[in-house]
Design a protein that fits this description.
With about 290 residues, this protein is of the alpha+beta class. The protein has helices spanning about 10-40, 50-70, 95-100, 140, and strands at about 75-85, 115-130, 135-140, 145-150, 155-165, 170-175, 185, 195-200, 210-220, 230-235, 245-250, 255-260, 270-275, 280-285. A hairpin with a 4-residue loop joins strand 5 (about 155-165) and strand 6 (about 170-175).
Length: about 290
Amino acid sequence: MKNSISIPRWVVSLHFFLLAAVATAGTATFLTANEKHATQADPPKVIDKEAVKLATDLSEAFRNASEAIRPAVVSITSSKQTRVGKQSGQPVLPEELRRFFGDDFGRQFNTPSPGQKSIQQGFGSGVIISRDGYVLTNNHVVADADRVMVKTQAGNEYQAKVVGTDPKTDVAVVKIDASDLPMARLADSENVRVGDWVIAVGGPFGLESTVTAGIISATGRDAVGITDYENFLQTDAAINPGNSGGPLVNLRGEVVGINTRLHRDLDRAPGLASPFPAISPRWSWTI
């Protein structure tokens, strides 16, 4: 016969009471430690309102300058016909390749036949300098073109007439038949100083009305091999293919230069602009 041990109920109750007391004490200790840690943590940093105001004021200046110049910036497409050389015959493909690629595969390697005309197109930007449709751009954007088309920011397209060029400075003026156009203000670029903020506007890679910003990095750059007359402003504002002819402006939205060319020998390059005081802007260039 087995003997059983009987534990009084008050002993069991006391046991659970002690466990509950220990758990409660542990929780209180944990909460107290966390509260102490929270009080020792660094308080939230206070933002310098004056510094923020300076930054937002500068941002507003860029925005205002961009809004002032963008309506006067246009996209320019030029085209000309050229004659190309003799057509090579369609290459003969082995039967195995012809079954795989198809009979038309070799045609992509053909060159045009003698006397066949080919259309070459160029793309650039320009800036309207009069309400009756005079547009300032680069000479190389419209040089020798049979047809020049200008598209405004409003989306209107016009056939333009080249009315003046100067290859030595890469300057050109074209005219469109329009009126009441938004026009840019031209600044005296002799007042430009190193460190001045500038904005470049144009259509790089076909992306119309693209705005980039930088500073004037240097003035009086020459011997860079772009034009016969060189006296460039240098800027680090991003200037890419399609920007040619677009304006370089100060924070008042005034044109101080014209983006003129991308130097293709460098992956990342600063920009330059050449001076024409008072009545004409300098030309900006990326090398």
